[in-house]
Give the backbone structure.
Amino acid sequence: MPKVFITGLGFITSIGNDAPAVGESLRTLRHGIVRYPPFDRPEVPVKVAAPVREFQADAADPEDWTLPARYRVRREVLRSMGPGSLYAHCAMQQAVADAGLTEADISDDGTGLYAASAGSPGILTRHVNRMHEQGVMRCPPLGIVASIAGTVQFNLVAHFKIKGASTGFSSACASSSHAAGFAYDEIALGRQRRMLVVGAEDGNVETILPFAGMRALSLNPDPDTASRPFDTARDGFVGTGGATVLVLESEDEVRRRGVTPYCEVLGWGQASDGHNVAISHPDGAGLAAAMRRALAATGRTTADLDYINAHATSTPIGDISECKALHAVLGAEAARVAVSSTKALTGHGLSLAGAMETGFCALALRDGFIPGSAHIRNLDPAAAGLNIPRETRPATLRVVLNNSSGFGGANVCLVLRRA
């Protein structure tokens, strides 16, 4: 089967809006969490979030949005977008340039796009309210494609003239990892030569605050300690948005174009908990099965692993579940294999998380470092015996694994190797 490589990255995130800035944040443990002004109301118990910087996309009219000068998005293009689609559009421009791709490479039968996003609930709410208050025919004609869950792929496929395979994935916080796994399959099975994998979220009031009703968000008002996976005092996740785009290409394309990849995608595995609609299996059974399947599919064992980017979101139940899964799979290797959660820096990007953290792993493999797990003061006893570095450290990594878990017990594990 053809080998698959990551050849380009695009980032619009709370810790940086390109690969160099993101890499620097991961090295220095610079987080992107702030006291979020839209939450600064007495009736809102949540006070922090990790917003994207340099963009202003809160206005109801996209023509009032502002974005960094390096990007150009036509007015007629913006009309069909939510904020997440805008972030994805800009991250796509980055990734295409980073991979050295031409317009002909992108708009080619051999290039496809898989995306993941929850859509734009803020825009959808405004449009539905307008329909009820002013009448059906007063709704914007592009309101649906700007707001429903497929909005990211609708926009990117149309505006970048994608002609290969395209679809969207909806498995909550495992969504963009599913997109990456199935994109790998498209290339490994010879169906496509190149796949663009996109994760994007608005990261605003309407996408973050509803999780407060689930008691899933941190009520800690201190940006420096609100997101602290594996710490005994963690009390929920911090919401974020943005976009990440990964360019996956076959070995033949890498050779033909003469590019140097970030890393190789060895394969992936998935499994379901079969337990609860919203809460992880208490023993991490599904995640453990997904990790084992990923290792088996790639012909690797735990002895080959150097680093695991944990899903750990800083929720009391979820982190313990993942710790149990890690202990069950790693066994005697638990004290050696490094494990960290970069969500301590970024917050939790929901369906964006898998693609974003796969991008982090690609940087770590290429540049030789293990991201630290920040903000841990008192390690949870469930994590005892795991090798959880508190600071980023240099390391020549060979094989890394990225974990993602979503509602309904969906678990995805991606395996990457140094190129």
About this structure: The CA atoms of residues 178 and 412 lie 7 Å apart.
